[in-house]
Amino acid sequence: MINGYDIAYAIGIVAASPYWLIAPKVRRKVLSALRLRMGNVVPRTGDEQAVMIHAVSLGEINATRALVKGLAEARADLRFIVSAGTETGFERGKQLYGADPRVTLIRYPLDFSGAVGRVLDGLRPSVVVLMELEVWPNWMVQCQKRNILVVLVNGRLTPGSYRGYRWLGPVSWGMFGRLAGVCAQEQVYAGRFVGLGVKRDRVVVTGTMKFDTAEVADRVEGDRELAEAVGLRPGEERIWVCGSTGDGEEAIVLGLYRKLLERFPGLRLVIVPRKPERFDGVAQQIADAGFRVFRRSSSALTGTEAGPVVILGDTMGELRKFYSLSDVVFVGRTLVDQGERQHGSDMIEPAALGKPVIVGRWTGNFTEVMNALRRGEGIKEITSGEELGRAMEGFMVDPESGRAMGRRAQEVVASQKGATGRHIALILRYL
Question: SS3 of 349, please?
């Protein structure tokens, strides 16, 4: 039955149509969502209990691995439904779970009551686990109608999100008040969840799962094969990997690289943009900056002029291998403000590999991670392109300082593990 939320969503789509119909990129995104995210799923067979885990983006999908593994080890009879809210997250989900018969992968439905109802009735989850924050009014109402408990794990609420939810007033209190439990990453977040209507006795501080997904190691399997494929010689040349970069950051990095080459002519550069739809544009940026481009996806070198080669990591799932090959890492979406929802990328993976990691000031989505790394002196923070250049020069001149910082970072990652186990215990209790 259509309700007030459905009417509000429909009005919003119609009201915004002059914008999204004109803008091709937005139009494709909206039409794709209306086509793929309306809850048209294949009904689940069997009577086993099922846990549905919803993760919005790539990083959260990666975090589901440990949850699924731990729950499956505790309960061999469990089945899993994993949903993703972004296309990159869904593609990563296919890589992780495409061959696992216990896991059904779906696109998270738009928050229309009909779409939500089709998913819940077709897949029949016993418990729904939301990663970090993804709480929607129709979703919570429809779960409550079916007596499906909803638990939020790895919970975090930025100041901006908290203000936004507070502004919604009764709508937010109705959503958050229906949560059966919240595992907050830190005490500040716990207080904000209580402020939005979650009962105080349902909120526990468990830490962040982000540390649990990172394997503390000195290298990654397959990294040497990757090096050979892209023409890198780790140990013989210094390698600078800029991972998960965002709009505006590649131009800064390329300008700095040209200057660094004057002093360190053997330095190699690898750029791995965060979003696949930016791969072609970044390749053009590299060429326009006067460098030759080696694209990992095609193993092809473009550009006829002699000169330095910049490697473009334009494949999915290989960033960690590139980090393994690096001598210094810059983690993107931290130097140029990409908007609050895009503040920061995962700096834990290179830290766990013992690499000296440089980040900019925009790391709000990793507040608890940054706090731990700061305390352990395992991260280098900069606020501008000029400071990034000076930080790179420092690590090039004194590589031992970088290796020492990398060792401290590994110790921090190892000491912060354990949140996933606490989340698993809570989910099993609700089951």
Answer: helix
